[in-house]
Write the C-alpha cells for this entry.
Amino acid sequence: MAEVYDCSESSQLLTGTRMARQAIGRGELIVMPTDTVYGVAADAFTPAAVQRLLDAKGRDRTSPPPVLIPGTATLHALAAEVPEPVNRLAEAFWPGALTIVLRANPALDWDLGETGGTVALRIPDNPLAIELLQETGPLAVSSANLTGQPAAQTAAAAKEMLEDSVSVYLEDGPRTSGGVSSTIVDATQVTEDGGTIGILRHGGVSQEAISQLLPEITVEDRTGA
C-alpha cells in the first residue's frame, strides 16, 4: 500500500524523501509538492515510468508531461538551443510558475510521448521539490489528479484519486496558489534577436509580464480563450 509521509516532521521528511528517491529509481511514481499544485512524478529517462504516469492520470501519449528540473544548467543540457531571450525569461521567472517549451536536445535518450521533438521545462519554486530534483535528476511531472478532475492541493487529495498507482506521497501542506497552475509558453520560434512566443496555457505568470520583459518578442495568445 502506498505510504503518505508528512514532510513537516523531520523524521518523516527524511524517510519520505529517501523512499521517494528509491521509488523513482525503480521506475515507480511519487506525488510531490510544487509551488503551484501537487504533481505526480516519474523518472524522465525511464519510458516505462512515463507511460505509468500517463496511465495513472488516464491520459494517452498525445499529452506528454512537462519536465521539472533543479536549475538552469539542466535547461541547457535538455534543450537543443536556448536563445538569449529565453535565458532572460528563465532568469526572471524561475524558480516559478512558468513552463517553457523548447526544442529538445536530439541526443537525449528518452520518450515522453508525442512531443514533436519538444520538451516543456520548469523549475518549481519549492525547496523540497528542488532538493528532490537535485538528487533524482529531471522528473516528468504532471498535476496529481485524474484527467478532468481538479488538481490536488494536498498529497491526501491526490491519494484519493491516484491511490496505489503511486508508491510514495510526500505531504507538504496545502498549496497557496489557489489552484493556479503554471503558465505554459511555446518558445520554439524565439531567435537571438526576436521571434514569437505563444501562450499555450494561462497561469501564474501573466502575458503582460512576458511582453514587458521581452519587448522585441511578439507574444501571442494561443489558448483559444
